[in-house]
Amino acid sequence: MLRVTQANPDPTFINLGIGQPALNLLPLAQIQQGAQMWLAENDPSALNYGVEEGEGYLRVALAEWLSGEYGTAVSLSNLFISAGASQALDLICTLYSQPGDVVLVEEPTYFLALRIFADHGLQVVGVAMDEQGLIPEAVEAAVRQHRPAFLYTIPSFQNPTAVTLPAERRAQLVALAEQYGFLIVADEVYQLLGYTAAPPPPLASHSASGHVLGIGSFSKILAPGLRLGWVQAAPQHLQRLVGSGLVDSGGGVNPLVSAVVRGVLTSGAQQAYVAQLRAEYGRRIRVLDEALQTHLPQAQYVVPQGGFFFWLSLPEGVDTAAQLPRARALGVGYQPGRNFSSRGDLASQLRLSFAFYDEEALREAAVRLGQWYRQLAP
Amino acid sequence: MLRVTQANPDPTFINLGIGQPALNLLPLAQIQQGAQMWLAENDPSALNYGVEEGEGYLRVALAEWLSGEYGTAVSLSNLFISAGASQALDLICTLYSQPGDVVLVEEPTYFLALRIFADHGLQVVGVAMDEQGLIPEAVEAAVRQHRPAFLYTIPSFQNPTAVTLPAERRAQLVALAEQYGFLIVADEVYQLLGYTAAPPPPLASHSASGHVLGIGSFSKILAPGLRLGWVQAAPQHLQRLVGSGLVDSGGGVNPLVSAVVRGVLTSGAQQAYVAQLRAEYGRRIRVLDEALQTHLPQAQYVVPQGGFFFWLSLPEGVDTAAQLPRARALGVGYQPGRNFSSRGDLASQLRLSFAFYDEEALREAAVRLGQWYRQLAP
């Protein structure tokens, strides 16, 4: 049997290192319906090179939906359709940086963004966070010292810490960007996945400043296999993306998929599915939290209010990267903290995701993590 | 009305500058059928992050089909699925070059590839062609002088000249690459569009040398809006593509579209559609050739045997870029030769594409080009 999906864990193994939804949670019926709507149109437009900023009717539907969800108007003229957040970030690196440039990131940050930055020859400098996210004073000091190409931040339900930046700090970051003339690239793929309350409006809502490129994605709120996302930014930045050789040569990104997703948005299925996800992930958080308190009381963490992740701190001296094989032997996996560090720190932290596994598996994972912890040398 | 497709010419204007198929030539029914096959599977696999090298069953079907078409075995282990040729080229630039590096290109070459190279800060050096394509001695001299990051070539039915590199020169290029240790990036998107005979096997068939990355695409043989293509290369290069931050973070490229196109391949619809395209484009070539001989006898050209383009040389002194507004005023468009030059030459050349317009429009375009030519100051 050929491998089709990226994550294919052994069924006896509960790998909470996987930060993506499981197949049985994906909205097959909703996307089938979107495909049926496209089929019924009997229109070949989506088969040709697409308009550079992205399929127009998808952008209209997306602008309208995001305006309602964010509680702040999102204009059609600020939206560029991308092939997911990763492709948007890659394109931004190509257009807005040179090898050797510094990119500021949160310490810790999304480990695969670090890989994209490495491919572009960028030098990554981590900036300190506290329990409210990036510390503006630390950002200012780093900007003065490094004059970065841009600051990469995940302001809502951060990967991996689940921390959300308050509205005042968001405004402070934008003020710093204006003062020092740097760009903020905000990875806001968890913005719509708040389970207890909505987070503050996205950093992208400050895009009129001309200093923010906000990245969104259908991967976390609909399906990763669509490879569809967006950039919300001021028109001058959209022109730069649209005017890239990649987009001019290949046309707008993913027109056929855009035509399918347009139907999912206009039918209301996207809205209903996000509500379903929020309820499901919220339940899983409560289950995993309770199970961790019972079986791994040594772990310290803030209960996530959104996103995909628990960020656990174990007592100092535990090396979660070195101890991963031991966990795997007990049938449980996680992402070691060090993967998220721009400087090889965070040895005693680890990230757990509740997106791939159901409640029963999450409980069992906590049991196994407890066994694992007890086996570690004191 | 919102713009949906990239090219939306005024219906009274015949723009032979457009190098893409028209909507009425696109295989809507075949892709609808592929979508129906995906729907009938009722399988969510294609909705999740895809396996990094690309959807396995698509790669199996593609390897089998290409093996038959190329007359030379294409192995599954040499295929990476990309989001079209442009995305493949962009990713190769990210991974295999640094700003300031030299890229050798044909003079003339595909103008939007030049844009992608510019976005990556690359320095482009044109290498001389003759009526058989790249001149190996000229390549050798340029390699010695510039030590390029890679050579970018379009070996079959080149864009814009329609010239095809003979088998012996292909072997010579590969021998040079081995001798001097450089990489050949072969853009082979017209390889399957020969109308009188098949071209020599693609440069990608030399991929075992480890010096060739061959780029293919469904854009010219099925539909651009799919954003689906491939790279055929030795396993060490595939590992590099698969191991990029972009692919690791976003998963394999376009899993949902891959699942649709898989059905188009396995049903035989792809094969039948390519045969239809070859017949249609072959007829258009005969019509445009005859009409140009009648109405624009001053133009010199070699009748294309495949691909999308006629490459016309007008008498020296004609500046096709400067004279384009005059042509537009007469309701006809083309791509000025200078767009394809790495050094601002080729002022009296122009490129015509027969992909977007039917026979009647092509005849009328030739009439208008004749009017235009007669209006030019002697």
Question: Your description of this structure?
Answer:
Two copies of one chain form a homodimer. The first copy, chain A, has helices at 28-41, 56-70, 84-96, 111-119, 136-146, 167-180, 235-242, 245-250, 255-266, 269-295, 324-329, 359-375, and strands at residues 14-15, 79-82, 102-107, 123-130, 133-134, 150-153, 183-187, 212-217, 229-232, 309-313, 332-333, 335-336, 349-353. In chain A, the strands form three sheets. The first copy, chain A, has an eight-stranded mixed β-sheet with strand order 2-9-8-7-6-3-4-5, with helices on both faces. The first copy, chain A, has a three-stranded antiparallel β-sheet with strand order 10-13-12, with no helix packed on it. A two-stranded parallel ribbon of chain A has the order 1-11. Chain A is globular and about 60 Å long. In chain A, helix 6 (167-180) links the parallel strand 6 and strand 7. The mean pLDDT of chain A is 96. Chain A has 378 residues and is of the alpha/beta class. Chain A has two domains: 15-24 and 271-376, Aspartate Aminotransferase, domain 1 (Alpha-Beta Complex), CATH 3.90.1150.10; 28-270, Aspartate Aminotransferase, domain 2, CATH 3.40.640.10. The first copy, chain A, starts with 13 loop residues before the first strand and ends with a helix. Helices cover 40% and strands 15% of the residues of chain A. Chain A has twelve helices and 13 strands. Chains A and B meet through helix 1, helix 2, helix 3, helix 4 and helix 8 of A and helix 1, helix 2, helix 3, helix 4 and helix 8 of B.
